[in-house]
Amino acid sequence: MAFTTTDGHTSGASVMRVKQGRMLYGLREIAAALRCSEKSVLRYVARYGLPAGKIGGRWCADEARLREWLERGGGSHPLCPPR
Asked: What is the pTM of this model?
């Protein structure tokens, strides 16, 4: 989750709000969002820091965090198809 302050400051006393996107559940749904295979999702998590993990034994990812990861260049490796 990405945290931002409501007043634009980084002090610990600032009121925080959480910016979260739609949750994706299961490797199939994550792979569909990234337009890649389920095996590639596992590879991206292990090698490139794709922001996904297991909750209760099921793979989950926040769609907004996946987009941020791609925009920051997380998908700039040779395995990721061009957008």
From this structure: 0.65
Chain CA centroid to CA 31, Å: 12
Whole-number Å distance between alpha carbons of 7 and 22: 25
HSE-up of residue 51 (Cα within 13 Å, Cβ side):
20
- Distance, in Å, from the CA atom of 80 to the CA atom of 69, rounded to the nearest integer, reads 12
Q: Which residues pair with 19 in a beta bridge?
A: 2
Report H helices in the chain.
27-34, 38-48, 63-71
Per-residue pLDDT reduced to its tens digit, 48-57: 899 999 999 9
Q: Which of 77, 80, 66, 75 is nearest to 2 (CA)?
A: 66
For 12-49, how does the pLDDT look when each residue is reduced to its tens digit (9 = 90+)? 444 444 456 789 999 999 999 888 999 999 999 999 89
